[in-house]
Amino acid sequence: MLLSPIEKYIVEKVREKRKALGLSQMALSQKLEMTDTFVSHVEASSRRAKYNINHLNALAKALECSPKDFWPEDPL
């Protein structure tokens, strides 16, 4: 399943912030209180898993940033 440009952008921004904090996919999944493989499934473009608005809010808390940090300045 192909991701849309905005989905790809958001996944990449979350990945960048996760790596900058030295968090593994599993560690971030656990911080979100999701299954251990949740983040890896979202980051794998071959999977159907995606972040929703509630996930982005929880990710912002876990990664200590604003939900706005995951969105581009201009529409894609």
Shape designation: globular
The helix content, as a percent range, equals: 40-55%
Beta-strand portion reads under 5%
What is the CATH topology?
434 Repressor (Amino-terminal Domain)
Q: Structural class, from secondary structure content? A: mainly alpha
Mean pLDDT across every amino acid position: 95
Give the count of helical stretches: 4
Largest sheet: none
What's the number of domains? 1
Provide the CATH superfamily: lambda repressor-like DNA-binding domains
CATH class: Mainly Alpha
Spatial separation of the terminal alpha carbons = 19 Å
The assigned CATH architecture is: Orthogonal Bundle
Low-confidence segments, given as residue ranges, are none
- The string of secondary-structure elements, in order, is HHHH
**Strand tally:** 0
**How large is the radius of gyration?**
12 Å
